[in-house]
Write a structure and sequence with these properties.
The chain is mostly helical and about 180 residues long. About 50% of the residues lie in helices and about 5% in strands. It has one domain. It contains seven helices and four strands; from the N terminus they run ααββββααααα. It starts with 18 loop residues before the first helix and ends with a helix. Bound molecules: zinc ion.
């Protein structure tokens, strides 16, 4: 480690700098989820050509899986995308691919990895996603709970506004403390 790397700590921190963490928390809170069902999970894993009784491997690089990747991100531009904690939106994944994939579309990420049997891997992902397609949960929420959703979004906006206010106060406090 270089001594100069200390620099990143020697600057003001803002609450709003963490806004994406809060956006994620709000979006995740909205996302409906499937209750655990051994049978439904086994069926989904079989659709990925894997054996649900064995250790799972990464659907992208085929190394040992260590986590679950949300095929479609829960949050797009700070909003709930409509894709949540559904069995058909979660695939076994290694940590490296999970980090590298980031906001990319799963197909784009497979194109990037470009394994020899790419078409086969794309094929089984498509089968997994389309066999029992997960619903667009945001569309359902807007239709079934429009009033609660609007109240929820107002609360979020108010919290973001208060975060800005707190940041301004924090700046004043720092200035007073250092002069
Ligand atoms: Zn991987």
């Amino acid at each position: 480690m270089k001594a100069s790397s200390i620099k990143k700590y020697l600057k003001p921190n803002t609450i709003q700098g963490r806004k994406s963490t809060f956006s994620n928390a709000f979006a995740s809170a909205l996302a409906p989820y499937d209750t655990y069902s051994e049978a439904a999970v086994a069926e989904a894993i079989c659709d990925l050509d894997q054996d649900p009784a064995k250790d799972l491997y990464c659907v992208y690089c085929e190394k040992e899986a260590a986590t679950w990747d949300h095929v479609f991100n829960r949050v797009v531009k700070g909003e709930f995308s409509g894709h949540g904690h559904r069995i058909r939106n979660l695939v076994p994944c290694c940590r490296t691919c999970n980090e590298r994939k980031g906001k990319r579309h799963w197909k784009e990420f497979l194109e990037l990895l470009n394994p020899e049997d790419k078409d086969q891997r794309i094929g089984r992902m498509e089968r997994f996603l389309h066999a029992h397609a997960a619903p667009d949960d945001y569309e359902i929420i807007q239709r079934k709970a429009p009033e609660e959703l609007s109240q929820f979004l107002q609360i979020r906006a108010e919290i973001f506004r208060l975060m800005g206010e707190a940041d301004q106060l924090a700046e004043k406090i720092r200035k007073k403390a250092t002069t």
